[in-house]
Amino acid sequence: MPPIDLSENSAADPAAQLAPRLRAYLCQVAGQAVPITYQALAKALGLAPPNTIHRLTLALEYLIKEDAAANQPLIAALVVSKTRNGLPAPGFFDCAQRVGRFSGDHSGPEQLAFHTAEFDAAVTFWRVTPESPAASA
């Protein structure tokens, strides 16, 4: 698989600008070990319309690319859709597939198994504790 290229996301890219603030907030969410919905996350970050959820998902995809490139759990797994029974939106799985982290059926049981594993790994890795990698970020 070719390496992930983040250079297309320059400092002028809104997703790249939002990503650090998003990651910092999600590290707090990880400490609670409870998923957050896209809508609740957008509200917590103070994102205003228009295109609030679209901007959020672009930033989440940016984080997926960063995490995959660093071989870290996908912090974006902490974010779920309120209409998908605790699963993220399909774009999460599409992006995870593009970066080589998900190869299952988008509508099958692999989806749930992958998300559960990524969610658990993200909670363990990203929760903010004095010894966690997130604490030094």
Tell me about this structure.
This protein has 137 residues and is mainly alpha-helical. It has one domain (14-127). It has five helices and two strands, in the order H-E-H-H-E-H-H. The chain has a two-stranded parallel sheet. The longest helix has 19 residues, at 14-32. The protein is globular. Mean pLDDT is 88; it is low at 1-10.
Key features of this structure:
two-stranded parallel sheet; 137 residues; mainly alpha; single chain; disordered N terminus
Ordered list of secondary-structure elements with their pairings:
Layout: H1 14-32, E1 36-37, H2 38-44, H3 52-69, E2 79-80, H4 90-98, H5 109-126
Parallel strand pairs: 1-2
Distance from N terminus to C terminus (CA atoms, Å) equals 28 Å
Regions with pLDDT < 50 over 5+ consecutive residues? 1-10
Overall outline: globular
* Estimated helix fraction: 40-55%
Class by alpha and beta content:
mainly alpha
> What's the assembly state of these chains?
single chain
- Work out the radius of gyration: 14 Å
Overall mean pLDDT score?
A: 88
What is the total domain count?
A: 1
Biggest sheet, open or closed, and with what strands and sense? Answer: 2 strands, parallel
| SSE series | HEHHEHH
Q: In which order are the strands of the major sheet placed? A: 1-2
* Tally of DSSP helical segments: 5
